[in-house]
Write a structure and sequence with these properties.
The structure is a homotetramer. The first copy, chain A, is of the alpha+beta class and about 375 residues long. Chain A contains eight helices and 18 strands. In chain A, about 70% of the residues are buried.
Chain lengths: ~375, ~375, ~375, ~375
């Protein structure tokens, strides 16, 4: 199994939904970055369930402890280990899934491939496992901030409701004002209603999350097989429910001509910028100094209480399944936090790989 | 720079558009696979330019030589090196780009990051560099065929023209009958006209390429950070002009509910299959035995002859640019070959990683 | 910093001597291996200090907790995290080393490279950090045992005292009967006296540790840059105080001819073996089915109480240093446990890499 | 198979003794390093056989061609491919080895593991394959020279004849004056006689090669699992006939006390140095600014013409073997070139990894 991501700034994630603990080891963070458990807790709190009607009713304290890597309030270059001990787990809810895979849930793969599958709460296939990314991302964000890089993720679509707002400043303000983490308050209201309606029906709904990184210098990314957009695409696609990744215009490029969407260069204040940013800040696999913009397609939570067709793997016969338990009717709001963290990890890694951040010591 | 892809089946690509040669070293192909230069040449010929009105007029022999890795007609487990010596290069066409980056072309990144940039024919930023993937992909396809896996890529959209045909057998037949490599002959006709119209205008046009892999067993892919869709997304996004990657329904999941698109299980002939394949053959990062389906968004070639705004990097002043030279008005037809090769490399790698193919010897 | 070892069976180690905790995440262990905390504790207890007069007087409970990776008594293919919380740390002993590096101790490198160095107990440069390897090695040993592979390390030399016994069965019995973990009880007695004499003088003494792995099949190791002896050499050299690694005859090959030391083949019971094992079980980077034998040179503990010359890095002036604190006068007995663990990790990794153990599931 | 070495400065080697070609792709060399084929040829000529009585009588032109990675006389950051086409191969000499492994030669492993083994000239198990390292090392040496780092390897022992000279300046002068590449001209004479005597007997002889790197800054190497000595040990052990690696005092540490061999610090010209260099320039896995000194044990060439016992793998019966063909009676002189190259590759890699050399562009 592959539970590490990153080449120079590397996260190794561990733990499962109902096991003893979850966490991550972050290797390769340079020494002398000020870092506290609060820096990580702040991000974890954003993904925490039980905070609004649109997420699962599970309540998890999710208090992170740092076990290593900090000396006198600063990183010391050694691996940083963040861990959360599980507390509020109801394993009895899950025994019914031992032999009956949930349609479009990863459990079928786990059963087939590993055999000994901890089906409780989805085990290591649970969305709860993204705690690892969020721990790593919190550190990455702190590191990137020292270089003037900021990252924000927001929900742009739920079902057929689309956000209209494109103003980054307004988006930042608005996402903290609504449980959807949407940048457009009117759309957020509609999205919330749609999600609650689907929840009521025992169903779930998909959506789209956009991530914007500003302050990224030109020159991140390595041509051919280490492209920045390639690494972003992998990292974002590795988030559980994601079925598509776009950079800049994404699939809209198909219906356009070069003359319509090429990003022309111009000089502003002796700095080279582009008139438009249809490329989403990445051309030829390298950042060009413009904001880096990605979109991900998030499928509806597969765990729904509506009756579905499945099979019993032991008896090898068809079987109906109704999934009880506490599931998010729409995971997009919480995915924003993971997308932000994931983007931060990839950018921190490339900032070190490309020589913008010293590999061992921020004081250099 | 990162010019390697794959963990167990690993391609290291080298060479540039107008340099001495291009090629790839393929490390990790098990011994005892029958392989000849013809197996590779066949794939290279499909991406060769100059074969129809919709591609560039450049004529390249592109004859591959195998320098290592074959003994008595079979792989011997050692690295396989395929190389093509460049012959038909017109370097005089490119000197104008030495200091003036082409809008939305990777050359700006190369100039900024590496300084000493071989701008001739786009250097190593050229689409010609995908010869490396095609060499690796040809070997991967031969290897996968021994396991009953086949891969086909086809154009599903150019501009606003969309192919309608979803029948895999028909797609396979049709793509060889039209220069667009589209599975729908009527759409292909329209696409061709659209491309020629754009060429006439000195412009270019984008499109979408779909790839379908059949015969893939359940259980490829490693949860969390080695997901099969994650690795596919990275590999596909690493193809030059790609701005988006979808698996299965892709971005369409956003507007759907779980009950609408969950892939329910059923038993057929004592085999577990799903009634639908909205997941595109991958759930939870692992293949589920259904066909693996991806789509990529291919942007219009940035090199167009229409006048565009750019900057002169040496003088640091704005400058107009008109790009001459022989460029494809639409690269989608040729991208199909690269998408096919890329998908083959990722699948071959995971077949070995997951224990379906022995890492050193096909005879085991 | 690089805190991971292994390609398929991968250990990521974390923690420091006086920090909150130490441990390791073990990724890539196949599912369905029976594993308990006791399996790991057993190995940790062997390296635990405070158990005899020849080791440091520090007493550490060193009780391991498994935080993840086990389901119903067996591995489930997910990362296994073992952690030990530090309890008996005397940080006041170490403040004198903040600016004064200890001769031949790694602290100088840490100070120079990372700046923010946790000097307490040697921080992450401490021998205590080998707890990570021992956790990983314990799991590796359990995994290898399912394939009939056993590994034993023993002390063959301390100072000028050399063990004479070459009988593997006898070595195994004897090492548990003396605190030196030497296979020759007479030599062990002399070694113990020598160590205590050096301790009395405020000095330390070096030695040699041999590791023997039996039951290893022919065919582990990948030619050219993934050789089994190459990977063993790196892993063993990565143990703190090691200054040399030998495979088989090692440096003795220099004074011999091919006809004297070539290992001739013969057939025994329809199995190919060699008459001698001067190669130490590895030829051309691959195991040949004979026992794998390595030796490592372990330098005397650099931390001695005798007065030594050093420098004050802050004042940039010469300074004398006398190292108090509780240090092992000879670390060889404890290094045997680490060498055993390290060898197990490398062999487990190659058993998976070479297809002898299935990468995800022991049931295959 | 694993044919790549290095993390940031990465060599991928290919080709076999009697195949079409041999070579290497060097990925990760920063742009703007002046480099020509002559720089590489110079190093290859040093390892070329047929130049004296103590090496094989084979004559190989071994002319290197650079296929990629150079633009206008300088590296451009893209992969550098060096290739040598084989010309003087006598495959008829080797057919007798098809089913009969040579004692202590790697061919047994190749036959067992890969099945389809090109036994001609040892195939990819041949010493000729070190051409890959030498190509990579030549580039690494040129890169390191820009940072003031120089590397020299010399023979210190053949059989029981040992070189006495420790003066680096004299060693450099002397090694070019004798075919043994020994730094002590008197010893060189004796060594030559010993080798010729063994050749006469149809036998071969082992030896020791020392490598010294000067000008290496303090701070190379990453603690725990990326130690500089760990990476050196692996790389050096990966050279065909090497059975042991020492750093600094090596195995001599066993018989010493800490007070005898600890390297005490002192300040010279406001620079921190050590009074002695028993550590061989590496402590705690990191360089300390002193010369880096390693020794490797080189076994006698296994291919000897004296009659030996072996087995016929096809018939599974014992069989005698007398190895004809042109083999070096002692490979130590040629190994010096490979050791130098290998050390250069490891140091170049760590210079980039540790931030001393910019990863993409020397102009930074």
């Amino acid at each position: 199994m592959s539970n590490s991501i990153g080449e120079k700034f590397k996260i190794t994630s561990f733990g499962s939904s109902h096991g003893k603990a979850l966490g991550a080891v972050v290797d390769g963070c340079p020494a002398n970055l000020e870092l506290s458990a609060e820096d990580i807790q702040k991000e974890l709190d954003k993904r925490k369930p039980g905070t609004s009607k649109v997420t699962t009713a599970r309540k998890e304290a999710d208090e992170v402890q740092i076990l290593s890597g900090i000396f006198e309030g600063k990183t010391d270059g050694t691996p940083i280990t963040g861990v959360i001990f599980n507390t509020n787990q109801h394993s009895k809810d899950y025994s019914m899934f031992e032999n009956t895979p949930r349609p479009s849930h990863g459990d079928y793969g786990w059963m087939m491939k590993y055999g000994n599958y901890d089906y409780n709460g989805g085990g290591r296939g649970s969305g709860r496992v993204t705690i690892g990314q969020v721990i790593g991302g919190a550190i990455a964000k702190k590191l990137l901030k020292t270089q003037g890089i900021e990252i924000i993720s927001h929900v742009t679509q739920i079902g057929d409701v689309k956000a209209q707002n494109n103003d980054l400043k307004l988006i930042k303000e608005n996402i903290e004002k609504n449980p959807i983490r949407c940048g457009d308050l009117n759309a957020a209201k509609e999205m919330e209603e749609l999600i609650l309606a689907k929840k009521q029906e025992g169903d779930s709904i998909g959506g789209i999350v956009e991530t914007i990184a500003t302050g990224v210098p030109a020159g991140l990314g390595e041509p051919v097989f280490g492209k920045l957009d390639g690494d972003l695409a992998r990292a974002l696609m590795n988030i559980g429910a994601v079925k598509g990744v776009e950079i800049g215009l994404g699939f809209d490029v198909a219906a356009h001509t070069g003359s319509e969407i090429n990003d022309e260069y111009e000089i502003n204040d002796n700095k080279i910028t582009t008139k438009t940013n249809n490329s989403g800040g990445i051309i030829g696999g390298m950042s060009n100094g413009m904001p880096i913009i990605s979109k991900i397609a998030v499928k509806p939570t597969p765990s729904i209480s509506k009756c579905q067709n499945s099979v019993n793997l032991e008896k090898m016969e068809n079987e109906k399944i109704e999934i009880k338990g506490r599931h998010d009717p729409c995971i997009c709001p919480r995915v924003t936090v993971v997308a932000e963290a994931t983007t931060a990890i990839v950018l921190a890694d490339h900032m070190i790989r490309s020589g913008f951040i010293h590999p061992s010591n921020l004081k250099y």
